[in-house]
Design goal:
alpha/beta, 3 domains, 8-stranded mixed β-sheet, 12 strands, about 10% strand
């Protein structure tokens, strides 16, 4: 290469995004599509490596510029220009202590697929490293600008550098911004709520704002910016802050209503993206290998026509970020990995939002213990010498009857989780039909589950109805608490949102007293029915979507498409919905219809 770097070419196939139960949590690259693909369908990444003159080759910084090889847009051409200019500069400097890897990722099959395929081969040593173009493809079938001389193929192979310290994905948006400044959008969410070390975002934000005068933004839910109820709440908090400051000038917790609304919209977007578990860009492929990475999408201002000046400013910013990471003696570790963004320079740490989660789930084990204690059998123990006295005994195994029912419902949830895999293999119909088939099969499996659970008899099957539903609720609440705690280990945002839905439903559920006309019983029944209705996963999805984006174009297949995107990215939220949320919802229905 004219710039003095080492060049190699990486060929990859498009990846399958179909649900496979044995490949869950292994990443979307677990199943590679190898049929019906010609050599022209392969993507080819161009990789350049600069060996650090002051380094030992043990660490590297990665720079990614995605582009579509079939049709390059203006934004992709600018991002390639930024990458080329930065790479050209770094090849001549003497202060580099870490190797530089520049990947021109061929994104005709998707940006994530190109980066993920390269990372998979980077971390997997194989015999194919000696020949990047297997014999199934003729070199003449590849695009001329991506070919190497045939004698160079065997000598180059797949080139590697050191352990990756950080990765930057550089994109230039084709859409111009209407702001007075160029806008830098930062995307940091990776699979299952993983986030890069906060210091990397702080470096980019500081250099962009104070170094190049850019306006830095993070993703937000725009519909909340125009919500009247949120603005009214912000104005209330602003008024309370002013009153508190008038009483004591040292109290400065009040913020303007505009900042409160914008921070809430950003916080909601950050929590939603983390809970969804789907990466917001190709940087998510690096987080699967515990490499701190973000996507920097630059939107030039509407009146910007000086491309040279734009490339200079963006190149200086990228150079500053690389130089900052290059000066580190160790990887990022002294800042937060668990946090929620409220703006480009403000966040909510795990030490704050973990308190809300603990307060939400703390009543569950207490209620489960209280219900179990209340449902324990009370017997009168007498003998010849002492008078009869009531004692509470726990020697019976009556609770196994409730545990058996909950266990079978949990097994039903596991079956519901796997049903889409078989539905997609047996039929090739519309999402609406697939969703209806899934619901019908789930109902049939649930009926079979209740029938099968009745075939086994345990002591305590003839319990009084008052005790029986209390034991059922006790075990259900305990199962919900266990599921939420396990989910919080994988994805804290999913557990937080799930607790908001499950905890009120589990705590208030009680058998409906249809024969009673007391106002207390009627209001409790209405609340129970309302919470159970709002706790149904499809209801939550459609109400949330309608609130944020409107109810126009309502289709049943949208819920199926949403779930399909979750399992395509192996999101833990799909497991939570099917194996924690849905079984608890079914048990709440069971308790509601129980005869007290």
């Amino acid at each position: 290469m004219e710039l003095g770097g080492e060049v190699s070419y990486h060929k990859f196939q498009p990846l399958s995004n179909k649900l496979h139960p044995l490949h869950f949590f292994l990443g979307p690259e677990a199943e590679v599509m190898q049929e019906n693909y010609t050599c022209s369908s392969y993507g080819i990444n161009t990789v350049g490596i600069i060996r650090a003159p002051r380094g030992d080759g043990k660490e590297a910084i990665v720079m990614v510029t995605p582009y579509n090889s079939h049709k390059i847009s203006n934004g992709e051409a600018l991002s390639l220009g930024i990458g080329y200019s930065v790479f050209s500069l770094l090849s001549r400097v003497t202060w580099l202590a870490k190797d530089i890897i520049w990947i021109a990722a061929d994104s005709k099959h998707g940006e994530y697929a190109a980066v993920s395929a390269w990372l998979r081969d980077y971390y997997t040593l194989s015999f194919s490293d000696l020949n990047p173009y297997p014999e199934i493809c003729d070199l003449s079938s590849l695009p001329r600008h991506k070919m190497m001389q045939k004698e160079d193929v065997m000598s180059n192979g797949f080139r590697r550098a050191g352990t990756m310290a950080a990765a930057l994905v550089i994109k230039v948006s084709d859409r111009s911004t209407e702001f007075e400044k160029d806008v830098l959008n930062i995307y940091a969410e990776a699979s299952n709520g993983q986030m890069p070390n906060l210091d990397l975002i702080n470096i980019v934000n500081y250099l962009a704002v104070h170094g190049q005068g850019l306006q830095v933004r993070v993703e937000k839910i725009w519909s909340l910016l125009y919500a009247s109820w949120l603005r009214s709440l912000g104005e209330l908090f602003e008024f309370v802050g002013k009153v508190a400051k008038s009483l004591n000038p040292q109290w400065k917790f009040g913020i303007p209503a505009t900042d409160y609304v914008e921070g809430s919209a950003t916080l909601a977007s950050s929590m939603y993206n983390q809970a969804l578990g789907v990466p917001t860009g190709s940087h998510g492929a690096f987080r699967d290998y515990q490499v701190d990475s973000i996507t920097m999408e630059i939107s030039p201002k509407l009146s910007s026509s000086q491309r040279d000046l734009f490339l200079l400013r963006m190149g200086r910013m990228v150079e500053g970020v690389i130089r900052s990471v290059n000066n580190l003696l160790e990887k990022f570790h002294q800042s937060f990995f668990l946090y929620l963004m409220t703006s480009s320079n403000k966040f909510v740490s795990v030490g704050v939002y973990m308190i809300a989660f603990i307060l939400l789930v703390a009543p569950l084990p207490l209620v489960a213990a209280a219900l179990f204690s209340d449902a324990s059998e009370v017997k009168s123990v007498t003998d010849d010498k002492t008078p009869a006295k009531p004692v509470q005994t726990f020697t019976s195994w009556n609770w196994l009857f409730a545990a058996r029912t909950v266990f079978f419902v949990q097994l039903w949830g596991a079956v519901v989780t796997l049903l889409p895999y078989f539905i997609l293999r047996m039929s090739n119909t519309s999402p609406e039909i697939n969703f209806l088939i899934w619901v019908a099969l789930s109902m049939l499996c649930l009926i079979f589950t209740y029938a099968a659970s009745g075939f086994f008899s345990l002591p305590g099957a003839g319990l009084p109805k008052r005790i029986e539903w209390r034991l059922l609720k006790s075990v259900t609440v305990a199962a919900a608490f266990t599921g939420l705690c396990l989910t919080s280990v994988i994805n804290f945002a999913t557990a937080e949102i799930g607790a908001l839905l499950l905890v009120p439903m589990c705590l208030t559920t009680a058998p409906l007293s249809l024969g009673s006309k007391a106002a207390k019983n009627i209001s409790r029944a209405v609340i129970n029915i309302l919470l159970v209705f709002l706790g149904f996963p499809p209801t939550v999805f459609f109400l949330t979507k309608g609130t944020l984006y409107g109810f126009d174009g309502f289709r049943l297949g949208e819920f199926w498409n949403w779930l399909e995107s979750l399992w395509a990215w192996n999101s833990a939220t799909y497991i939570f919905i099917c194996m924690v949320h849905l079984p608890c919802w079914v048990m709440c229905i069971h308790i509601l219809l129980h005869r007290s």
